[in-house]
Amino acid sequence: MGSLFIRFQEAVKTLAKNPMFANNRLFARDPRHLQFEADVNRLFLYTSYYRLGANAEEKDAEEIIDMASKASVSEQQKQVQENVHYQLTNMCQAMDSILLPDTKNGASEANNYPRRSGLSFAVGTGVASANKPDVPSTRPLNRAELSNKFRDHFQYTLDIRPSQIPHKDAGQGLFLSGETNAGAVLAIYPGVVYSPAYYRYIPGYPKIDACNNYLITRYDGTIIDAKPWQLGGDSREIWDGSDLVDYNAVPSKSQESNSDRAWRMLSKPLKKGHTENFGEVLERRNPLAFGHFANHPPKGSTPNVMICPYDFPLTEKDMRVYIPNITFGGEEEPVTMKRFGSFWFKSGRSGNQVGESPVLKTLVLVSTRSICDEELFLNYRYSNSKKRPEWYIPVDEEEDKRRWS
């Protein structure tokens, strides 16, 4: 398998230099899209390599490499989605086997969740909660216990501990405990998902990143805020994405000008309406829900994971509890937006197109090589048009430029 991976690495390097998916006009007009295509190509190779398995034959690897040089970007995107979904399906099934109680003998090891009495509804105190989904019973394992059992199944799990990066702002880091191959789905980026139509609801808007280091943006403009998720929890519960931090009350690290203050006053974040369906039953112990703790690699190091957009099909009801995200504004009627430069506008159509299933737009971290008991590093790709932190060492300045062009 090691020799096959060398072939895949060579293919990644070769194809990354070949703008085969974009014609010259597209390359000149939208280098950002070219970078997206290059990333899809890499993800196609890595996730397909992982799916081949330990007993893969060289002809299978050569076929995938050949497909990577010929298949369209949309075809490769579909395969990446299938490869990621295949892995997550196996992981969710394993967590079901760990957490769901055995009721064959009529006995359950699960937690017993208190139910509201009929009296509480009669006097009106339960009206607001009447439509909330039921939280199914699970075995009384804490987050650490579930993580250890997950490792028994997949030979790795994730740990959060002080980063090994030698700078004062490194904080906590994400560590892989165990080992895995390239192309493995190692983590999910948790939190509240905002489409461009709901940017003004992001806490702290318009300077949403002034007091929040846990924001990430997909190429399609979707923003995920992991700050409310934090470290998860020790139970399966209804999670509504609440965050107690008052972003507007926390001063920015940089001094604001008069125009900055005026813009902030005119562009205050909108408040969430009381009628929104804003909450899902989620497994807060999920051992994969820590993508927001991965640090940018320090000088002399390279990334060992990369971002992969993942559109979770909401038709997969059994898996939903393990996807640690909720969509702001609800999951039933997404608003279609189009990007023009730095701005987003409604396209005039709402909802999914005919024949399309509803999806939850999130992100996962995929390994780019074999990893064994080490800290996970993710290329942050900060824009080079703005002042970047002192600790930020670009992995590839050209990639940063294309990503935010």
3D architecture notes:
A hairpin with a 5-residue loop joins strand 5 and strand 6. About 13% of the residues have low confidence. The chain is an alpha+beta fold. The protein has a domain of 283 residues: Beta-clip-like, CATH 2.170.270. The protein is built from nine helices and 14 strands. It is globular, with a radius of gyration of 22 Å. The longest helix is centred in the N-terminal third of the chain and has 27 residues. InterPro entries: SET_dom_sf, SETD9. This is SET domain-containing protein.
Task: Tell me the layout of helices and strands.
Elements: H1 2-16, H2 24-29, H3 31-52, H4 58-70, H5 73-99, H6 118-122, H7 143-154, E1 156-162, E2 172-180, E3 185-188, E4 191-194, E5 215-217, E6 223-225, E7 236-239, H8 258-266, E8 280-283, E9 305-313, E10 325-327, E11 335-340, E12 343-350, E13 359-367, E14 371-375, H9 397-403
Parallel strand pairs: 4-10
Antiparallel strand pairs: 1-2, 2-14, 3-13, 4-6, 5-6, 7-8, 9-13, 11-12
Helix pairs in contact: 1-3, 1-4, 3-4, 3-5, 3-9, 5-7
InterPro entries: SET_dom_sf (IPR046341), SETD9 (IPR040415)
Organism: Oryza glumipatula
Protein name: SET domain-containing protein
Summarize this structure briefly.
By secondary structure, the protein is α+β, with helices and mostly antiparallel strands.
Average pLDDT: 80
CATH topology of the domain at 86-100 and 137-404, which one? Beta-clip-like
Strand content: 15-25%
The helix-strand sequence is HHHHHHHEEEEEEEHEEEEEEEH
Instruction: Write down how many β-strands occur, each being a DSSP E stretch of 2 or more residues.
Output: 14
The share of residues in helices is 25-40%
CATH superfamily of the domain at 86-100 and 137-404: SET domain
CATH class of the domain at 86-100 and 137-404: Mainly Beta
Task: Give me the CATH architecture of the domain at 86-100 and 137-404, please.
Answer: Beta Complex
Overall, the morphology is globular
Order of the strands making up the biggest sheet:
5-6-4-10
Protein name: SET domain-containing protein
InterPro entries: SET_dom_sf, SETD9
